[in-house]
Recover the amino acids of this structure.
């Protein structure tokens, strides 16, 4: 029997003091929240902080853990954190063709990849925390 292999990722939902949401524009998925795979020896929150900095140029402070989306079929666990910006400047990279802060309603309309909008909406709803969404649809990572 092979040992299980899982992918664990961490993403941040970053809201500034103007109630704007930080989004990055990835080359494959379009506009989304910053995040990525947790590295060996790294905590979930530190991964969210690192990925946000790498993809957007923005330094963040984690406010709270919101929940997890688990794609059971693909063994992917995506942890989600609410955060606020504390410094840095917006950047563009190979991973993020653009980045910016957008009014929440506009930002939600911009996010069209699979269930990413739902992830953001749940993070913005404190009554939903913590959540654990499990699904098996292999096309809905």
């Amino acid at each position: 029997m092979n040992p299980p292999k899982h992918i664990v990722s961490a993403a941040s939902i970053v809201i500034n003091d103007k109630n704007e949401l930080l989004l990055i524009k990835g080359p494959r998925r379009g506009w989304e929240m910053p995040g990525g795979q947790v590295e060996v020896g790294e905590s979930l929150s530190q991964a969210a902080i690192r990925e946000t900095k790498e993809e957007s140029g923005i330094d963040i402070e984690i406010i709270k853990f919101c929940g997890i989306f688990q794609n059971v079929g693909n063994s992917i666990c995506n942890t989600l954190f609410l955060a606020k910006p504390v410094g840095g400047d917006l950047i563009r990279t190979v991973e993020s063709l653009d980045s910016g802060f957008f009014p929440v309603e506009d930002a939600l309309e911009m996010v069209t990849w699979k269930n990413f909008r739902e992830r953001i909406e749940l993070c913005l709803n404190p009554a939903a925390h913590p959540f654990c969404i499990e699904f098996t649809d292999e096309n809905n990572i």
Observations:
- Residues 109 and 130 are 24 Å apart (CA to CA).
- The chain has one domain: 7-135.
